[in-house]
């Protein structure tokens, strides 16, 4: 009998040309039918899903019918403007951090209110868990139709008078809690491909599950995340912000934060890998803003993330550096501001007595020697005639007097002749990196195009006595420079990820980043570091450590061949050091290529 009633109302609502849901004799029976849908063990799921989808379609055609379908309380909640919701999210997030409360401790009256008010939303969410693909698809489509209502007060109703955000974010938390963090492969999770939510319905039933239950759980989690991301992109701003805030509170704050603080390294490793994949895959601006808020606008978590970049576990360090690199590729201005630019704004890394002085020498420290007098550094392998044509991006001028050719050669000359192995295999010089450097610089330019970055450097900020407070480069640069200083004793994979982050920061066209990372001629204040000064110290340590290696050129050549996948036997001795030397050589060539792309060659 119930099935026949469902079929009758489905045909009635789908065939009638004029709206009917506002009629008492229609919407009251419809509300009762909705409450009877999605009961566990129901044998009429297919008809129920079709009935609910038709209701959502009618509401989509006439959004004013939404209030007749949803059983809203007599006194609706106060409307919260979209512009105020991010601030409200921040306040709630702080409150939840100070007084954490599990879902089992919440007020039971809340759940009863949800059931009485949002039977349609609950039914759709319940049917989205169905084992039947067509039923599940119709439930997804119904949720998309409701959340995509653009006209009238529909978005305000859904965001302020229903529990839609809590229900959708709660489902994400439910799927996340099924992930076996102790047994998942972090590398597989971190590189998880984009899994469109609709892909689970486009495959045959035999392809919906894999041999590994853990893989199925990961697939289900990322499919639902993609669905939420897609829903927030299509939803009105006020609803999108509300949903993103719910994801922040219910998933990030209540689940992910505690796992990042976990004592088990495997849990921390997999959790950070999930965050890497989520940051890489997210497209919704509202959800990205909440991810940035969670990771970077909380001092405790930001400090924790950057501490993990220098963790005792190399794997945690690698995945944390990968998370930083993923953040640097997202279109969000606050990421660079919080991580690096706010610390460089004062330009106190410059010596007060050297500002404006036209000098070609670089003062890296009190005991630093001029590169021209250092016997370990020879002239560049590349003359002006060997440089590639002028690149298309707009130039960024150095604050110092050095030409682009001088700057390029400064990075190339950093690597002592004794340890250069690329030429032994007849590999290209820095020009082999120019194409990739141009691609990366172009991407960074497109990201920052709307951020209104200054074209010139701000004046240095010093006290009246000229003795300003000691310069602090920021937690990120401190970790990166500390790691770079240990590049000769770190695993190869960690060094690759470290140099990838530094290269991406160097590719941005902000004048402060360009000066601090790519200008070897700046005069540093006491105790200050720059990328070039750290590299010089590393090269000095390198020249001392290679004295203990016999047949250095042959060993470097064998190591380079091994890293290229060629089947050459390499002895176990000094492998970390030899690989670090090769990474250093390639990193200096990459920095030279980035400089070549960003600067005009005709500047002399």
In short:
This protein has 604 residues and is an all-alpha fold. The chain has 27 helices and no strands. InterPro entries: FHIP (IPR019384), FHIP_C (IPR045669), FHIP_KELAA_motif (IPR045668).
What features would you describe in this structure?
The protein has 604 residues and is mainly α. Helix content is 58%, strand content 0%. It contains 27 helices and no strands. The longest helix is centred in the middle third of the chain and has 24 residues, at 237-260. The radius of gyration is 29 Å and the shape is elongated. Residues 93-112 are annotated as: Disordered. InterPro entries: FHIP (IPR019384), FHIP_C (IPR045669), FHIP_KELAA_motif (IPR045668). This is FHF complex subunit HOOK-interacting protein C-terminal domain-containing protein.
Class inferred from helices and paired strands? mainly alpha
Radius of gyration: 29 Å
Run of helices and strands: HHHHHHHHHHHHHHHHHHHHHHHHHHH
Portion of residues within helices: 55-70%
| Unreliably modeled segments | 75-80, 92-116, 204-208, 357-401
Shape: elongated
List keywords for this structure.
604 residues, FHIP_KELAA_motif, FHF complex subunit HOOK-interacting protein C-terminal domain-containing protein
Topology:
Elements: H1 2-15, H2 24-36, H3 45-61, H4 66-69, H5 85-98, H6 108-117, H7 119-127, H8 133-147, H9 154-160, H10 164-177, H11 186-190, H12 199-202, H13 213-234, H14 237-260, H15 265-281, H16 285-296, H17 299-308, H18 314-328, H19 333-344, H20 404-412, H21 434-448, H22 475-485, H23 492-507, H24 511-518, H25 531-545, H26 552-563, H27 575-598
């Amino acid at each position: 009998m119930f099935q026949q009633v469902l079929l009758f109302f489905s045909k009635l609502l789908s065939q009638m040309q004029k709206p009917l849901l506002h009629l008492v004799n229609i919407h009251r029976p419809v509300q009762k039918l909705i409450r009877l849908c999605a009961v566990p063990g129901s044998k009429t799921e297919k008809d129920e899903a079709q009935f609910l989808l038709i209701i959502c379609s009618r509401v989509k055609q006439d959004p004013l019918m939404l209030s007749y379908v949803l059983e809203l309380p007599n006194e609706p909640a106060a409307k919260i403007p979209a512009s105020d919701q991010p601030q409200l999210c921040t306040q709630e997030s702080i409150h939840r951090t100070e007084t954490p409360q599990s879902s089992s401790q919440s007020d039971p009256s809340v759940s009863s209110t949800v059931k009485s008010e949002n039977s349609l939303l609950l039914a759709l969410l319940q049917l989205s868990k169905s084992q039947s693909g067509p039923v599940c698809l119709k439930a997804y489509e119904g949720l998309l139709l409701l959340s995509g209502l653009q006209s009238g007060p529909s978005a305000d109703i859904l965001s302020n008078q229903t529990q839609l955000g809590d229900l959708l974010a709660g489902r994400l938390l439910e799927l996340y809690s099924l992930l076996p963090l102790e047994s998942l492969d972090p590398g597989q999770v971190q590189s998880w491909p984009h899994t469109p939510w609709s892909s689970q319905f486009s495959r045959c039933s035999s392809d919906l599950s894999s041999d590994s239950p853990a893989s199925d759980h990961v697939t289900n989690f990322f499919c639902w995340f993609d669905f939420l991301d897609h829903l927030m992109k299509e939803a009105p701003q006020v609803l999108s912000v509300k949903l993103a805030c719910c994801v922040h509170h219910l998933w990030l704050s209540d689940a992910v934060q505690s796992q990042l603080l976990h004592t088990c390294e495997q849990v921390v490793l997999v959790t950070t890998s999930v965050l890497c994949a989520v940051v890489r895959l997210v497209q919704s601006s509202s959800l990205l803003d909440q991810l940035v808020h969670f990771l970077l606008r909380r001092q405790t978590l930001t400090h924790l993330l950057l501490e993990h970049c220098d963790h005792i576990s190399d794997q945690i360090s690698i995945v944390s550096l990968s998370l930083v690199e993923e953040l640097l590729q997202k279109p969000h201005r606050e990421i660079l501001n919080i991580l690096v630019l706010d610390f460089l704004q004062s330009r106190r890394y410059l010596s007060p007595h050297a500002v404006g002085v036209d000098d070609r020498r670089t003062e890296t420290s009190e005991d630093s020697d001029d590169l021209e007098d250092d016997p370990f550094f020879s002239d560049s392998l590349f003359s002006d005639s060997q440089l590639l044509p002028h690149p298309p991006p707009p130039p960024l001028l150095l604050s110092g007097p050095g030409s682009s050719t001088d700057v390029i050669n400064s990075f190339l000359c950093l690597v002592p002749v004794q340890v250069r192995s690329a030429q032994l295999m007849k590999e290209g010089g820095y020009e082999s990196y120019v194409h990739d450097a141009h691609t990366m610089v172009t991407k960074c330019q497109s990201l920052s195009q709307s951020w209104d970055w200054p074209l010139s450097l701000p004046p240095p900020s010093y006290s009246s006595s000229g003795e300003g407070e000691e310069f602090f480069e920021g937690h990120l640069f401190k970790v990166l420079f500390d790691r770079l200083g240990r590049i000769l004793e770190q695993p190869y994979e960690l060094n690759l990820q470290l140099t990838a982050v530094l290269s991406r920061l160097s590719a941005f066209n902000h004048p402060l980043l360009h000066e601090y990372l790519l200008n070897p001629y700046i005069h540093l204040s006491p105790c200050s570091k720059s990328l070039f000064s750290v590299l010089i110290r590393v090269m000095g340590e390198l020249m001392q450590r290679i004295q203990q290696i016999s047949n250095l050129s042959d060993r470097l050549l064998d190591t380079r061949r091994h890293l290229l996948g060629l089947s050459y036997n390499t002895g176990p001795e000094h492998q970390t050091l030899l690989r670090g030397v090769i990474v250093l050589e390639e990193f200096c060539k990459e920095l030279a290529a980035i400089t070549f792309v960003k600067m005009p060659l005709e500047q002399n």
